[in-house]
């Protein structure tokens, strides 16, 4: 879109819009088709991420018991599991769907109320608009 963009995290409506947190447009009757498509794609991306974490936890079930290890070790443990998981995926090590039986999707803690508008970054709307234009230029999917 003619502007270099940095990485962003995906958030839901409860998070403040920041130039590093991409969140959907507020759902109401005034949304354009383009904004609805943006929200749909953001929701799809979020579900892909949730599925990836579910598979990671299913393959490396030690991640389900992280409360057993020290906080200092936790980042190294998670990184090691991510690397090993990617190695397995890259080498077509089959994922056993039965592993998912012991792994339930968990809701991560998040704010209960939407963030106040004062917390939103005015520059972030430009980032969201650029992403919205980009998604529109990609067509359906």
How are the elements arranged and paired?
Layout: E1 9-10, E2 21-22, H1 33-59, H2 74-90, H3 124-138
Parallel strand pairs: 1-2
Quick structural overview:
By secondary structure, the chain is mainly α. The chain has helices at 33-59, 74-90, 124-138, and strands at 9-10, 21-22. Helix 1 crosses helix 3 (124-138).
User: How many structural domains?
Assistant: 1
Total E-strand runs? 2
Sequence of strands across the biggest β-sheet? 1-2
DSSP helix fraction:
40-55%
Q: Count up the helices.
A: 3
* Structural class by helix and strand composition: mainly alpha
Radius of gyration: 18 Å
**Distance N terminus to C terminus?**
19 Å
Which band does the percent of strand residues land in? under 5%
Low-confidence region ranges: none
Describe this structure in words.
The structure is a single chain. The protein contains 3 helices and 2 strands. With 141 residues, it is mostly helical. The chain has one domain (9-20, 30-138). Strands 1-2 form a two-stranded parallel ribbon. Helix 1 crosses helix 3. The longest helix is centred in the N-terminal third of the chain and has 27 residues, at 33-59. The mean pLDDT is 83.
């Amino acid at each position: 879109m003619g502007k270099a963009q940095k990485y962003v995290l995906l958030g839901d409506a409860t998070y403040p819009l920041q130039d590093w947190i991409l969140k959907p447009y507020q759902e109401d009757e005034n949304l354009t088709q383009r904004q609805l498509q943006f929200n749909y794609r953001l929701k799809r991306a979020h579900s892909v991420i949730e599925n990836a974490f579910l598979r990671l936890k299913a393959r490396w079930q030690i991640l389900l018991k992280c409360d057993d290890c020290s906080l200092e070790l936790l980042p190294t443990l998670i990184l090691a599991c991510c690397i090993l998981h990617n190695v397995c995926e890259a080498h077509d090590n089959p994922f056993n769907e039965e592993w998912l039986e012991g792994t339930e999707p968990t809701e991560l803690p998040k704010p209960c109320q939407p963030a106040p508008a004062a917390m939103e970054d005015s520059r972030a709307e430009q980032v969201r608009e650029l992403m919205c234009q980009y998604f529109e230029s990609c067509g359906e999917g």
